[in-house]
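Its record is set out here:
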Amino acid sequence: MPVERNPRDPRWESWKIQGSRSEWERLSEKVEVLGEYPKKERLRLIMSLVDPCVEAIREEGRSLGIVKPIIKHFYFSEKEDYDVLQQMTLLGYPLPKTRNGYPLHPRIVYRCSGCRIKDYHDQQILEWGFYEWLRKNPDKPEQVWENAKILDPDYVKFFLVGNLYKYPNRFIVISVLRLKKEPITGWLIQPKKDHSFSHF
């Protein structure tokens, strides 16, 4: 896909699809699928990329990383001043809602596999699938946790986390990565020494 930087965003990992603001209806046409990473290799790849803690990502000055969470609990925070009205395009199609367009915001409380803080991380989840479920099923919000396999013991969970442009020290969960448990034979990349995967 063709990508571009936001000239006002200094984060090294921050890219967006060209035309993401003005050509929303055509964005899917700009993405070309060249292949698919083998399913049997995905868990090994992700385990090799895991950071010990969100704090380690912050200390290295990075804006993105993957952590292995030990989940304490999850909940919804309520946003009373959310945008009830949905904006429309010039052609009359509804624009996708932003997170400010929802009364409930999913949040998760966890520690990392090699956590460096004494307390727990308490972060908002921004994954599109969570909000799409809330949009289509406003009467069944709790189902999002089951959809994400949060409590399913047959799945290993990882969080793709990132910081906010205006608040570089504040991290959110961009996506919940869930993969079926399977034996790992060797690493693609040697994991960092301060991990603790004993709970895996």
Remarks:
- The longest strand covers residues 69-78.
